[in-house]
Write a structure and sequence with these properties.
Shape of chain B: globular
Helix content of chain B: over 70%
Mean pLDDT of chain A: 87
Low-confidence stretches of chain A: none
Number of helices of chain A: 9
Low-confidence stretches of chain B: 326-336
Strand content of chain A: 15-25%
Strand order of the largest sheet of chain B: 1-2
Largest sheet of chain A: 6 strands, mixed
Distance between the termini of chain A: 36 Å
Shape of chain A: globular
Number of strands of chain B: 2
Structural class of chain A: alpha/beta
Radius of gyration of chain B: 20 Å
Structural class of chain B: mainly alpha
Strand content of chain B: under 5%
Order of helices and strands of chain B: HHHHHHHEEHHHHHHHH
Oligomer: heterodimer
Largest interface: A-B, 48 and 34 residues
CATH superfamily of the domain at 5-91 and 167-253 in chain A: P-loop containing nucleotide triphosphate hydrolases
Number of domains of chain B: 1
Chain lengths: ~250, ~350
């Protein structure tokens, strides 16, 4: 790789009761790129995310982030090292307001063992939360309880929570899942904006090919727990092997 | 002059509604005069501290422990044994009781938190019951089922007033001062970044973890703080009754604190105070009429859980919010835990 490498996996594998969901994956992510992972259901995309973020331990191999081995760390430690994560199935604090959701995530990274000063006295928390709500376009609704938001708004909050820890690497697991065309377009714009303004590196799983082509610098195709191909969007679009296992399959099932 | 005083009264009311802690303090200062006897008010304070401590774990963090009698009882026994066997001063004995409960909470909490859900509830219960039988059978040390009797009495003079459990009113205000300190500490704790992160664990543990919250550490911290306040209440109870009954370690004590917290409103700041008050008041009134008071309190509890699942205080708050906050977007920074 010409550019410096932010995240790398070496022989990363995971089996579930004998079934190999991921088969010794070597993967590297360059600093500053937006990288999309595509592949049929069961190809191991979400498993890959869960392994990187420490939600489940790998059966083999390791994960290296900024040159540091992070295999076996807990998600909260990995978050503090600079990886943010959004989920395919909305994962927010339902009974808290949007503002509290974001501020919780902002403050979570440090000062957790401060049990004497009032949270309100930390103006930086408040300001950062306001900024993020502005970025994701939910500022006007900040007092609303998260459970009352529409699906599209909850998906935005989901991204906001991942941003709150000020990550260098953002893992987005199907950010446009269940969204209307219009909401999908907005989310694409949002992702492009945050990637530009925050100089983020983004690794995303996405099924909608128009989203992938619009955002991604590079694409990796997963198939049955291994990497089938990696390349630029044009490369992937014209790759015969990818067409046969992925795009054709999708058309048949669609 | 009249207008002036009316304005003063209104300003005073405004001040109280903006500073609920002062409101609570005022109510507590007047509490003994609304009770048929002062000791009942004292008992309410002690259980309110206990329930508030329990509420940190149960209401704010969302962890259901059925064994908080362990920490109440250890606080009580720690204080009693230190006074009875070792003749420590009241202050030192008090600290020993609280420390004993806190350390036990650290140890049992660490082990219990390796499990979750019903298993967590059961293992906390098991630890408490183990301590109960230990106290019950150690006749020579604890007095067994007779309880620990003849505990030296607190007696000091301040500003010419003698404070001893024999004088209900001064003793009440002594306990109230300790209660107020607890209230301030709890208030600051629950409004701190750490206190806020408790709710994130209750709301969504996996997201809290992904946000960078060390949930294992924060849960243990909540458990220990909860044990600390339970132990403190237990030690005060010994000071108050000059007697420790093994029942303070028994599961019924854990049951009572669960009922008080639920009755008042879990996860609300003032709920446990109201819950302890209502519980003790009913116990006092109904037990004067019939010995089976628990039947009626139990019935009330069932009705409350069915019709007011958020508790008495929780329901009042919900009603209040509906009246005052309709369409009113809370200004940020104003979302303190003021309930």
């Amino acid at each position: 790789m010409g550019t410096s490498c932010l995240l790398e996996t070496k022989g990363l594998g995971r089996s579930f009761e004998g079934f190999a969901a991921l088969k010794g994956l070597d993967f590297s992510l360059a600093n500053g790129e937006i990288h999309a992972i595509i592949g049929p259901n069961g190809a191991g995309k979400t498993t890959f995310f869960r392994l990187i973020f420490g939600e489940i331990p790998p059966s083999s191999g390791k994960v290296i982030f900024k040159g540091k081995d992070i295999t076996g760390l807990s998600p909260w430690q990995i978050c503090r090292l600079g990886i943010g994560r959004s989920y395919q199935i909305t994962n927010i604090f339902p009974q808290l307001s949007i503002h509290e959701n974001i501020r919780m995530a902002v403050q979570a990274k440090r000062l957790v063992y401060n049990f004497w000063s009032s949270t309100d006295s930390f103006n930086t928390f408040h300001e950062k939360a306001i900024n993020i709500m502005g970025e994701i376009g939910l500022e006007s609704r900040m007092g609303e309880v998260a459970a009352n938001l529409s699906h599209g708004e909850q998906r935005k909050l989901e991204i906001g929570l991942a941003l709150a820890s000020e990550p260098e690497l953002l893992l987005l697991d199907e950010p446009t899942a269940g969204m209307s065309m219009d909401e999908t377009k907005q989310t694409v714009k949002l992702i492009q904006k945050i990637a530009r303004e925050r100089t983020l590196t983004i690794l995303m799983v996405e099924h909608k090919m128009d989203v992938v082509y619009a955002i991604a610098d590079r694409i990796t195709v997963f198939h049955q727990g291994s990497v089938l191909s990696t390349g630029s969007p044009d490369n992937i679009r014209n790759n015969e092997q990818v067409k046969s296992v992925y795009f054709r399959g999708r058309k048949e099932h669609a | 002059m009249n207008i002036l005083s009316g304005k003063h009264i209104r300003n005073f009311c405004d001040f109280l509604s903006k500073h609920p802690i002062y409101m609570l303090s005022l109510i507590l200062i007047l509490l003994p005069f609304s009770m048929s006897y002062t000791s009942l008010a004292t008992q309410i304070l002690i259980y309110a501290i206990f329930a508030s401590g329990y509420n940190i774990l149960f209401g704010y963090t969302g962890l259901v422990s059925f064994g908080h009698s362990a920490y109440f009882g250890l606080g009580a026994y720690g204080m009693g044994l230190a006074l009875y066997h070792f003749n420590f001063s009241q202050g030192v004995a008090f600290l020993i009781g609280v420390m004993l409960a806190t350390l036990a909470a650290m140890f049992f909490g660490y082990l219990s938190l390796k499990t979750r859900g019903p298993y967590f509830a059961m293992i906390t219960l098991a630890f408490a019951q183990a301590l109960y039988f230990l106290a019950f059978h150690s006749y020579k040390i604890t007095g067994g089922d007779d309880g620990l009797r003849n505990i030296p009495m607190l007696d000091f003079r301040i500003f010419g007033i003698s404070v001893t459990p024999l004088k209900p009113l001064p003793f009440y205000y002594f306990v109230l001062i300790i209660t107020l300190i607890c209230i301030v500490v709890l208030w600051r704790l629950l409004n701190s970044p750490l206190g806020r992160s408790l709710a994130s664990i209750r709301e969504n543990e996996s997201r809290a973890l992904a946000c960078g919250i060390d949930i294992k550490g924060v849960k243990l911290f909540a458990f220990v703080i909860s044990g600390f306040f339970s132990g403190l209440a237990g030690a005060l109870n010994t000071m108050f009754h000059l007697f420790v009954h093994p029942e303070s370690l028994y599961w019924t004590t854990s049951g009572h604190v669960v009922v008080m917290t639920l009755l008042g409103g879990t996860g609300t700041f003032f709920g446990p105070f109201l819950g302890a008050g209502v519980f003790m008041f009913l116990q006092d009134r109904i037990s004067a009429i019939t010995e089976s008071w628990q039947l009626f309190v139990g019935l009330l509890f069932v009705l409350c859980v069915i019709f007011f699942p958020v508790g008495i205080w929780g329901s009042i708050l919900a009603l209040f919010r509906r009246i005052t906050l309709v369409g009113n977007v809370l200004s940020s920074g104003d979302e303190r835990i003021r309930s």
